[in-house]
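User: tokens in, sequence out, please.
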């Protein structure tokens, strides 16, 4: 069978498989749902096979779809390695580097890194796309991005991939965010001092949600979660409105400080911001330039 495969459509196929729906894949890739549907219809015509079945509200790949998606991951990774190898030829780095980001990283670190890359390596085109913070290593391993920000917790570490390295950027210690103007607290407090408060936390299935709950359990209480929220900016807005307390770090506070006060903790509750990249092949000059720019953009890193 003479088939010409389009890498753009293959990337979309992998995203549909990973997210389970064309709507979610469209959101992750910055397309409309209609555009994803058209791409997948064209891909099915190209390979002359059905690639999807509908299971409830989710899309499930057929045997042919799963086979194609597995090979697509390899093809996309090869295409990335080829681009980076060409970018590593002598002279000023010239490359397209795609970085996976989440909210805090995008707001606090990416703008400074973009400026540094533009000033020092004008031949490097740095792009970004949102990646679930818990999927940083897997996104790099699958070739969806060249680099990805992630967060490692001692209580809920990122699943390791043999071909992905996690570069430590900075380790932050958590405090507790409370509404400004509330009852004054003198000096550092224990987590248990907040046992009677309402909390704003991510769901327990997230690494962050698990890590905070485990820290609270070690302090001998179960947090009462009145608001289950993943987005950091929304979390801080709810705290500022007096609707609960939440863990917070200095980088998180770059998203919002208005209406908030912070209480240091006697316990060491920490998180480590990491940057995931492939071990082999070694990062080429374009990727290395972006890594260096990101490291230089981390306060205290």
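Assistant: Sequence out:
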């Amino acid at each position: 069978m003479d088939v010409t495969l389009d890498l753009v459509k293959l990337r979309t196929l992998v995203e549909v498989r990973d997210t389970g729906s064309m709507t979610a894949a469209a959101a992750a890739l910055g397309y409309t749902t209609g555009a994803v549907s058209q791409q997948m219809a064209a891909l099915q015509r190209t390979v002359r096979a059905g690639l999807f079945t509908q299971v409830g509200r989710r899309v499930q790949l057929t045997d042919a779809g799963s086979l194609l998606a597995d090979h697509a991951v390899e093809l996309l990774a090869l295409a990335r390695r080829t681009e980076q190898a060409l970018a590593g030829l002598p002279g000023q780095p010239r490359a397209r580097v795609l970085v996976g980001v989440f909210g805090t990283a995008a707001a606090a670190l990416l703008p400074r890194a973009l400026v540094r890359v533009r000033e020092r390596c004008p031949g490097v085109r740095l792009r970004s796309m949102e990646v679930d913070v818990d999927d940083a290593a897997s996104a790099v391993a699958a070739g969806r991005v060249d680099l990805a920000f992630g967060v490692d917790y001692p209580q809920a570490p990122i699943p390791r991939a043999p071909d992905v390295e996690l570069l430590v950027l900075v380790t932050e210690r958590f405090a507790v965010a409370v509404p400004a103007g509330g009852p004054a607290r003198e000096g550092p407090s224990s987590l248990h001092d907040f046992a009677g408060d309402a909390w704003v936390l991510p769901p327990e299935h997230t690494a962050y949600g698990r890590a905070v709950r485990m820290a609270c359990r070690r302090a001998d209480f179960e947090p009462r979660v009145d608001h289950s929220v993943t987005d950091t900016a929304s979390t801080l807005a709810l705290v500022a409105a007096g609707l609960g307390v939440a863990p917070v770090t200095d980088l998180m506070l770059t998203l919002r400080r208005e209406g908030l006060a912070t209480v240091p903790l006697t316990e060491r509750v920490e998180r480590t911001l990491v940057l995931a990249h492939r071990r082999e092949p070694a990062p080429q000059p374009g990727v290395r330039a972006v890594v260096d720019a990101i490291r230089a953009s981390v306060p205290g890193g």
